[in-house]
Amino acid sequence: MTEACVGFTRVLRGAGLPCGPDRVQAFLRATEHVDLYWAGRLTLCADPDDLPRYDAAYRAYFGGTPPRPRTTIELDSVTVGVAASEVEVLKHKDISEFDAAPLIARLTPLPPRRRSRRLRKARRGRMDLARTVRAMIETGGEIALPRHRRRGVKARRLVLLIDVSGSMAAYSDALLRFAHVIAHAMPVEVRTIGTRLTRLTRQLRERDPERALKAAGRAIPDYEGGTRLGDALRRFNQQWRQRGAVVVLFSDGWERGDPSLLATEMARLRRVSHKVIWANPHAGKPGYRPLQSGVVAALPHVDTMVAGHSVHALEELLKEVRRA
């Protein structure tokens, strides 16, 4: 079965579909939950324009007519089957309750941006006097259209701090997969926090998500251990020398250490960061109140707290990061 699926992805790649390693892994995992046709359609098609090519490749490789959905709705002239509705339901389901890897692999992160100091040619903006004068000289002194320049745009550094303590065990795998997707889309620094601070940036550069997570698991000495957020953040602040990053902290806020130390280190982190976002897996649940000692200590130094319990919440988090 696996060999046939991989062969099918080669045919799709030849047809121009973006079947990279992450999508192939998501496809293989999705076949455990839905039939092969829908698993591929949901994970290997990045755009509605891919659907006709996908169906043609399916017919050519497997023979026969692609299965039709049990019920359909029309959306932008594309027939969307019941499987798509099921995926939308899964996106809002708590990621601690099912294998969210196929959906996480489909996320498309975009980096936060900042204005660079370097000025670039532009149609509008500040007048570039030197270029304007050169243009006049080249035309024999005739009046030339003004040249302009403006500051360019660069990707802003992103930092992910992921709580891997026992209370976050149900979310750790999905969040590390989320970090892996981001690591292959933009510059990012990834650390895990628990009783210790562990850098995973190098391990998550591995293209294959399964190998990357295995390497990450071997590197984390305090996986599913206690929680000393203040101590871990103090070590991070001592090591991290870059200013202006967007920092995302994934944690439920349970703290066994000194809450005052956590407050001090969060304030220190906020001073050198462009923005600090706290993604709490409990924040999106009905009736949640931020009463944990860690949350109470840290909240005054957090720009925004968002939910982090579902694929939909992670999609919204990516939008928040992009806007930062």
TrEMBL record:
<dbReference type="InterPro" id="IPR036465">
    <property type="entry name" value="vWFA_dom_sf"/>
</dbReference>
<dbReference type="InterPro" id="IPR011195">
    <property type="entry name" value="UCP010256"/>
</dbReference>
<protein>
    <recommendedName>
        <fullName>VWFA domain-containing protein</fullName>
    </recommendedName>
</protein>
<dbReference type="Pfam" id="PF05762">
    <property type="entry name" value="VWA_CoxE"/>
</dbReference>
<dbReference type="InterPro" id="IPR008912">
    <property type="entry name" value="Uncharacterised_CoxE"/>
</dbReference>
<dbReference type="InterPro" id="IPR002035">
    <property type="entry name" value="VWF_A"/>
</dbReference>
<feature type="domain" description="VWFA">
    <location>
        <begin position="155"/>
        <end position="315"/>
    </location>
</feature>
